[in-house]
Amino acid sequence: MQVEKMWLTAGVFTLTYIGLAVGKLPRLRCDRAAIAFIGAALMLCLGTISLGDAVAPDSVDYQTLFLLFGMMVVVGFLRISGLFVRLAHWSFDRFKNPKALLAAVVLLSGILSAFLVNDIVCLALTPLVLHLTKRLGVNPIPHLIGLATAANVGSTGTITGNPQNMIIGVQSHISYASFAAHLMPVALIGLAITYGVIAIVYRAALAEAAIVSRQNGRDQDRIPHGKYPRRLFLKSAIVALITVILFFCRFPIALVAVGAAAFLMLSRLKPKRIYREIDWTLLLMFIGLFIVVHAFQMRVVSHWHVEQWHLILDHPVSFLSLASAALSNLVSNVPAVLLFETIVRAVPVVNQQTAWLALAMSSTFAGNLTILGSVANLIVVENARREGVAVSFWEYCKAGVPITVLTLALGMGWLMVVHY
C-alpha cells in the first residue's frame, strides 16, 4: 500500500510539474494556478495525503500567505494612490537622453522591486515607460527589457522583493536586515550589470533614439499626473515606509504586513478596488503547490536519504545556484524553490543559511534568462503587446541571457566569499 501511494504521489507530482512547465493543459484553458489546484485535489482524492496533513502548518505555509497578501494590499494602495506615477513623473521627466532614461528606468524599477513585490512594480511602471518612449519617439524595447530585468535583479535584495524570497525568508528564519545585508550588494551591482548589458546590446538603437528625441518637443512628453487623492497618497506612503522600517527592526514580517494592510483598509476607499489589486491566482497557486510538494516530500523525498548527498552538502552554493536556475526556467521559480526546500534543510547547519541565500539569489536571477522565466517579464511583454509593441522571445534573450549569466556568476562568487 505504501509503495502504491509512493508511485501515485510521484505520478501526480510529475504531471503537475510538467503542466507548470508547459503552462497549460492540452485542449483546456487551465493556467498554472489551476494546474497546481488540480494537482493538490488529486493528491487528496487519491489518498496520498490526508486533509488534516494537507492543511497542517507543515504543509501550507500560512506565514508566507499572510506576508504575500499583506504586501499585495499595501502595494495596491500605493498604486491606487498614485505613488508610482508620481515617482515616474519625478524621475523619467528629468531625462530626455535615451541612455539616461534607460538608467532611470533600471534604477527606479530595481529599487522599488527590492522592497515591494516586483510583479506589481512592473504592472505599474510598464504603461508609464510606454507613454514616455512614445512621446519621445524612441524605441521602447530597450527600456521595456530594462524594466523587466531590473525588477528581477532588484527584487533579489530583500525578502519582500518577490514571492520566492518570501517563502525562503519565512522558512529560513533569516531576519529581514540580515537578508538585505547579504544580497542587497549583489542586487545593486546586478543593476549596474543590467544597465551595461542593455546599453551595449542596444547601443545603435539608443544612439539613433538620441537624435530623434532631440528633435521632439519637450513640452508634450511629460507623464500625465492624473488625479489622485492627496490624503490617501500620504497615508499609503507613510504606512509603506513604516512597514519597511519595522521589517528592518526584526518585527515578525508576516504580522507587520497584515497589520499594515488592515490599517490601510480603514479608509473611505471601496474594498472592491483593493480586491482587484490582489493576485488571487498567485495565492491559489501557492496553496496548491504547498500541498503537492508536501505530499511529494512525505511519500517520495523521505526515501531519498538526501542527508547522504555529499556533492550537494559539500558544495551547496554552486549546486543550488545552477540547479535552481535550470529548474526555475522549466517550471517557474516558486515551484522550484518549494522543491529544493528539503534539500536545503539537509545541508549542515553551518552552511544552511548560505544555502538559503543561494537559492533566493539564483532562482530570482534565473528569471531573466527568457521571457518565460518570471511573471514580471510576462507582465511587461503582455502589457506592451496590448499597446502594439512586440517584444519577441529572441529579442528579449539578446539581453536576458548575458544578464543572467553575469549576475549568476556574480552571486555565486559573492556567496562563496561572504558566508552567512
Structure description:
This protein has 21 helices and no strands. By secondary structure, the chain is an all-alpha fold. It is globular, with a radius of gyration of 22 Å. The N and C termini lie far apart (about 45 Å).
Give the topology, please.
Blueprint: H1 2-22, H2 32-45, H3 51-54, H4 62-80, H5 83-92, H6 98-115, H7 118-136, H8 141-154, H9 163-172, H10 176-201, H11 203-215, H12 230-248, H13 253-265, H14 271-275, H15 280-299, H16 310-314, H17 316-331, H18 333-346, H19 349-365, H20 375-386, H21 393-417
> What would you report as the Rg, rounded to the nearest angstrom?
22 Å
The average pLDDT value, as a whole number, equals 86
- Strand portion: under 5%
Give me the number of helical elements.
21
- Give the helix level as a range of percent: over 70%
- Based on Cα principal axes, name the global outline: globular
The count of β-strands is 0
Residue stretches low in confidence (pLDDT < 50, at least 5 long) are 217-221
Structural class: mainly alpha
Largest sheet: none
Q: What separation lies between the terminal Cα atoms?
A: 43 Å
- Taken in chain order, the helices and strands follow as HHHHHHHHHHHHHHHHHHHHH
What is this structure, in a nutshell?
The protein is mostly helical. It has 21 helices and no strands.
Characteristic terms for this protein:
single chain; 420 residues; mainly alpha; globular
